[in-house]
Amino acid sequence: MTGATGIGAAVALRLADLGHRVFVVSLDPDECRPLVALLGDQAAGFSAADLRDESAAVAAFTAADEALGGVDLVVAVAGGSGRGFGDGPLHEVTLQAWEETLRLNLTTAFLTARESVRRLRRTGGSLVLVGSVLAARPSPELFGTQAYATAKAGIAGLVTTLAAMYVNDGVRVNAVAPGLVRTPMARRAASDPMIQEYARRKQPLAAGMIEPGTVAEAVCAIGLAECVTGQVLAVDGGWSVTEA
Questions:
Q1: Which residues are catalytic?
Q2: pTM
Q3: CATH assignment of the domain containing 137
Q4: Domain total for the chain?
């Protein structure tokens, strides 16, 4: 699984609770170590790798394959906000900000998907990617990060094309598209009263921000569902069906 905080950590812990051995791939070893410790006997190890880098991604998946004795489920959570690069309304976005945001959110998904499929084709299995509700249900006033939304829309396209390409190999490819989740990436939102009020109206089922464990439940459900492929499941507390 890729990602060691927020949704990634919640998914890893949920999979461990379900009896799965988990190998963690994430950029920061200081985030990987405490998660692996929490996984206890279900931990298969970790690799600190920048999944924007092809050689690092290949090495990380090789390590995971060896540690697990084969890969049958991959959950790709790695990614993050592009605000630090300058992501925002398109007329203000530089080419560098655009490219860096897509590298962080779409290139990581591509390399993770490619390395996953190369292994899953051997015996079948499941890949779950993480998109965003913003790809299809934008909120320009509060979340006007257009490179990020485009990258997440690209993940939805990747799901459809990969599911069609590899269905006869027994490989299932799906995604979840969360709404506003209480993660380290959402610190700005968590500290902004206007966004918090918006979240209470926009995500009424969560009465505000969604907890990572809620998303993890959906990730595990769709990832382990044997006859489901090519789907993007919104886990958004009602965001996509409310007017607020």
A1: 148
A2: 0.95
A3: 3.40.50.720
A4: 1
